[in-house]
Amino acid sequence: MIFVEVPPGLGDRGRRMWEESLAIWSLTPAHLVLLEEACRIADRLDLLDSMLRVQSGEVKPDVAQFADFSGLLAETRQQSSALKLLLTEIRQGQVGVGPAKDEEPSGGVGVSDLTKRIADRRRKAEG
After folding, report:
1. Cys-Cys with 31: which of 4, 13, 72, 93 at CB 3.0–4.6 Å?
2. Looking at the DSSP assignment, which residues form a beta bridge with residue 94?
């Protein structure tokens, strides 16, 4: 594993995610940038969660408060979706992982995995 310094400004969750991700993944420089953003989103989700917890204890039948609460929920959903997409992209960008050449492919889910499987099948069918 190559040591890459923890980006400045990460909170507890983001720092933990950074360190644990680098312990299991080997990433390209571009994917390290994506990981950094994913860690920041994880921290942001913690902040949004704490805001929701405070608001949920103070919710009254006031329409203005409901609008604030629903805005936090919407932002949380958007951040969660962004995190999921980034983690999917990061996982697909791992360097030096995957089956050995003699092994059967494990059936990855990325576009590059699908393209490789299609090309392999075409070569088998032609040869």
Report:
1. 93
2. 27
pLDDT in tens, 32-90: 999 999 999 999 999 999 988 876 665 555 555 555 678 889 999 999 999 999 999 99
Q: What span, in angstroms and rounded, lies between the C-alpha atoms of 1 and 107?
A: 25
Say if CB 35 and CB 18 are below 8 A apart: yes
DSSP string, the chain: ----PPPTT--HHHHHHHHHHHHH--B-HHHHHHHHHHHHHHHHHHHHHHHHHHHHHH--S-HHHHHHHHHHHHHHHHHHHHHHHHHHHHHHTBSS-S--TTSPP----SHHHHHHHHHHHHHHHH-
- Per-residue pLDDT, 32: 93
The whole-angstrom separation of Cα 22 and Cα 95 is 12
Whether 26 and 3 have beta carbons less than 8 Å apart is answered as no
Cα separation, 86 vs 16, whole angstroms: 17
